[in-house]
Amino acid sequence: MLEIRHANQRGRAEHGWLSSRHTFSFAHYHDPKQNGFSDLLVINDDRVAPAQGFGKHPHRDMEIFSYVLEGALEHKDTMGTGSVIVPGDIQLMSAGTGVAHSEYNHSKTDPVHFLQIWIAPAQKGTAPRYQQQHFSEDDKRGVLRLVMSPDGADGSLVLQQDARVYAGLFNGDETARLELASNRYAYVHVARGSVTVNGVELGEGDGVRVRGEEALSFTQGRDAEVLVFDLRDIETSALWA
Fold first, then answer.
1. Domain named Pirin N-terminal: which ranges (predicted)?
2. How many whole angstroms separate alpha carbon 212 and alpha carbon 184?
3. Which of 20, 65, 78, 179 could form a disulfide with 13 if both were Cys (CB 3.0 to 4.6 A apart)?
4. Would the annotation count 103 as a binding residue?
């Protein structure tokens, strides 16, 4: 079963320097029907004005990653990490026992467009950790490239949860198929462009909760960039039981 969440159904926040769309409940946006999906808790689609950003603030016990679509994002944290994240890079911060960080638009002239995504960790109280890796367009062209996993398979970043994240680029005749185990959920987020998933056309910003499907088929992409999350078959409410 595919449960579609259209882009225009998302929460929104406009702060002048920041234009954000929230797939799930976040900050001042709260919808009791949209409190994440399985261990996937946040997908924020953020556009930040030049030289602006999120000042230093703390997190703990959360897997947080940034996926830059356009521009450059400057990261600093209390682990001593400083980096600039550009399209193709994936930054993963395991907050663990606690870390503070800032995220700013690195450019003084151009906006930055990125996704910030939170996944609940399997275990609380672990040591904070930072990872960053580049996956080229060729790595993702016409395939679903594994970019995060619990065991670092195929050169992916190590995620502290029983979840796997794939990234893909699809245009024209390019197709891909992802097999799903019978005891797994999935979530599909279309970061840009459009693509057909199991016969359903999805546009930029659309998302899909997937339950009870044997596989996901991606076809008829038009400059599409997608993220796919292979998740445990639990409802988010079970995390807080």
1. 8-119
2. 8
3. 20
4. yes
